[in-house]
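Hey,

The postdoc asked me to send both predictions to you directly instead of through the lab channel. I've kept everything plain text so nothing gets mangled by the mail client. Protein one:
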Amino acid sequence: MNRRDALTDVFMTGIHRPTDETSNFRQAVEGVARDVLTIKKNARASASARVLSRLAEPDRVLSFRVTWEGDTGGTLYAPDGLSAEAVGWVQARKAAGENMASPPPGFGASYLEGASPWEI
């Protein structure tokens, strides 16, 4: 085993593997690590900044959905969330000073006259 392989093996022991679904991720990290580790070991700035460790972190995606939008006359409620198109429609109505009492049928939303969002 050469020095690069030994460094890679040590580095890879610190990479968490929560499920088998991450095997492609681990394989990609190992490939990059083999190329970068020897460079990293020779560059103090890269080592102290933990550059390779940061590169080995998987992306985290946060998502949420907007299920209601209120105005002075009531609340637009969409149990499955408002699509980007529906949010655009709401923004256009509000910009024009109009309420949301008549949502288009394809939005999966209903207007609850006189209701506030916390009453849903």
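Protein two:
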Amino acid sequence: MSGAACAEGVPLSDVACPGNLAVGADQDGPVSINGKTMQSSAEDDRHFQARTPQASLSISVEDNESVTVKYSARHSPHLVGEAIDD
């Protein structure tokens, strides 16, 4: 999706989630899932949301600076992934 809104403060991360989902984010830049850019927004400086009509991601920066992603989609269970590299 071109021109997707980007949440300021999103951490640089690559996260592997169950179900063969690869979530990537550039620092302050776009969030993508399996290479497709998503709309993103900041809830606060440690919590971010990214959405498409079919899926939703909650991105959290933990106290130890690791990144956790919770993924949900229509007709699928909630999945949790953790950063590959901190």
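Summary for protein two, as requested: The mean pLDDT is 79.

Thanks,
C.
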